[in-house]
Amino acid sequence: MSYGDIVRFEGDIKSMTSQLLKLKNVKISGTIKFGENTEEDDNWEPMGPTPMPKIPTLRHWDFKLLDRYPPFYMPICDLCCLCTFGKCDLSKGKKGACGLNIKAQQGRIVLIACCIGAACHTGHSRHLVHHLIETLGRDYPINLSNEIEVEAPIARTVTGIRPKTLGDLEKILDYCEEQITHLLSAAHTGQEGDYLDFESKALHAGMIDDLAREAGDIAQIVAYNMPKGNEDAPLIELGFGCIDKNKPVILCIGHNVVPGSYILEYLEENNLEDEIEVCGICCTAIDITRVSEKPKIVGPLSRQLMFVRCGVADVVVIDEQCIRTDILEEVLKTGAVLIATNEKMCLGLEDISHLSEDEIISYLIRNRAGLILDEEKVGKVAVEVAKLVAKERKNRKTLPDLNEVIELAKQCTECGWCNRNCPNAFNVKEAMVLAKHGNFEGFIDLYKKCYGCGRCETICERNLPIVSMTTKVGEAYYKDLKFRMRAGRGPIKDVEIRSVGAPIVFGDIPGVVAFVGCSNHPNGEEEVALMAKEFLERKYIVVATGCAAMAIGMWKDKDGKTLYEKYPGEFRAGGLVNCGSCLSNCHITGAAIKIANIFAKVPLRGNYAEVADYILNKVGAVGVAWGAMSQKAAAIATGVNRWGIPVIVGPHGAKYRRLYLSNGEKFKVKDKTTGEIVEIDPVPEHLIVTAENYKECICMIPKLCMRPNDTPKGRANKIYHYVDLYEKYFGRMPPDLEKFVRTEKDIPFMMKDKIMNYLEEKGWKPFEKYPKNPTIL
């Protein structure tokens, strides 16, 4: 007998008696599995051509994408400073000391960004899986309920593995880590030298990022019993105003749910849930509310500095990712205690993990900050420290009062450097000028939109605490900062895919719009919510994750309801789906993959290119990353692009200085049915493109949801929304409409006359034929 063998047994039992069971003359048969490789596992689907792809394995697919959507570079710097052979001037066709030109250098920068992002998610997922295997065992089963049979569509497609246990996720992460090492090594001096190959590697890194996120989110869903695709996941309280300041407050910031889960466990075991307020910022906030309905969400990353300066939190627990690197300094200013819990963010603090919990509590009361890498201890420590610290901080003032804001404003010299140093060029100086006269209108407007990065303060020659002043005014004038958002539901159910697969592929549902990515939106959270509202009303499927999901929740209609309270959480036309945290982005691409598999029966196992080709040509989905983009967001967007899904980025996302743009002319595809190469309309027109403002973004969405596979009825539906939105926001017909009308059948009946008039002016001619089954393979 060896590891991986199966023993089949069959026999008769004359009689058996136990405390629970009495049996007589029973015939039994079955199998016993030894180890991990079972016959069933090997035969669940025939293996495709590319399981566990190496860097060059999918290069042919990448080059097809890059041929249609060549990289468009806008280098922010034409110097290379990555090694001491330079710095090298790469402007005006010059090469560096290693021979690299500016295009390859730009491709290398994108690859490095994607590797950082992929490493961050892989490290996070490894931490989760490692911890959960230690506590639950390697054989802990992966069961996402009977309604989700395709439990890991990305893993199935990329690796050929159908994970059954937490141990299986380890193998997936082993693969991810190996690939990231090879990818990053290619960025070393004297390695890769071609910009297209750098881009192919960046696409590979994006795919690895997608895979690692799936492994991490599946692990935490099954281990913490998070919602498993529940469309009626509970509504969670959101916003500054929902935090009960009369209780000791613990604030969790970051992305890793483990420390927060121990805090919740300790509270439950000691019946303290109603006595201690637990809240969160960024993805940790979303994930602790997937564990329990009790915690509250303060808001996205953009609200971090403002909330900390409010001084509401007595204990701040940080884990990893998206945490201000000066968080220690900011927390100590308020008299609160900071607990760091992750090796990736130690902040120079003493490691006190070896002490007993009571010793750690005493240490923190004396020293106000410490590093605890034994996360289980964080549960008791954070709670007990919060109870002690809350008493001494009860009447502590951390913000200037409104009179002090006026006096501080009077110190402003009106030099205007705050405006110039603001990433969004907000009118900070003007707010200061008004405040000098007791008029807070400028600060009220600023509070609504400000990201709270603090760059205005760092440049201020008078060292004015501008973020604190903004926060105080906001606190005084915005009394109703209470919202509700639906807890992250995780994956899309197979039955939902069966319901919407055909309407999406044929265009009857006009599209799937995914709002993802970091905050620092150009004009605050409201724009994300308004975009979501526009497409919910038009019966698109709207999905969201992370900071974007929170931003959508921070807006109310005239009836005082958020979009989560108005629209169902189902993956259907007019549904608003919050999948969860950043890790949960995998379920959005996972839904597209499931459409290929469940609806169209495209095999997944090791079959990446065929699945991505199906999505590119037939699944009308688009991603929107409206805020600034961390390296993780860059990896997510690039990974989504490799699946054939276009992404729109906002003004800040454009700063990576690389887009994938077509020339807008007709594309060529092969019709699988006839074998002919035919010209088609340019859909989707771009793979990653920027929008200057939210109106432009709104009008791009219906265009980028068009696919070659649209039926005439489906295309007419999409063209209706494209024209209607363009007229609504720009007061005229789309200037490129003629590209996307294939025949008169594509013209929506209600708009036939005006569209035909427009087409005649443009000299439009219908396509003689278009493919029934398009492919670029």
Question: What this model shows, in words?
Answer:
The chain is of the alpha/beta class and 777 residues long. It has 28 helices and 23 strands. The strands form 6 sheets. An 8-stranded mixed sheet has the order 3-19-22-18-17-14-15-16, with helices on both faces. Strand 8, helix 8 (283-291) and strand 9 (296-299) form a beta-alpha-beta unit. The protein is globular, with a radius of gyration of 27 Å.
Structural class: alpha/beta
Give the tally of β-strands.
23
Mean pLDDT equals 93
The main sheet comes to: 8 strands, mixed
Low-confidence stretches: 1-6
Radius of gyration from CA coordinates: 27 Å
Strand content: 5-15%
Backbone shape: globular
**Helix amount, in percent?**
40-55%
* Gap from first CA to last CA: 45 Å
Q: What strand order characterises the main sheet?
A: 3-19-22-18-17-14-15-16
Number of helices: 28
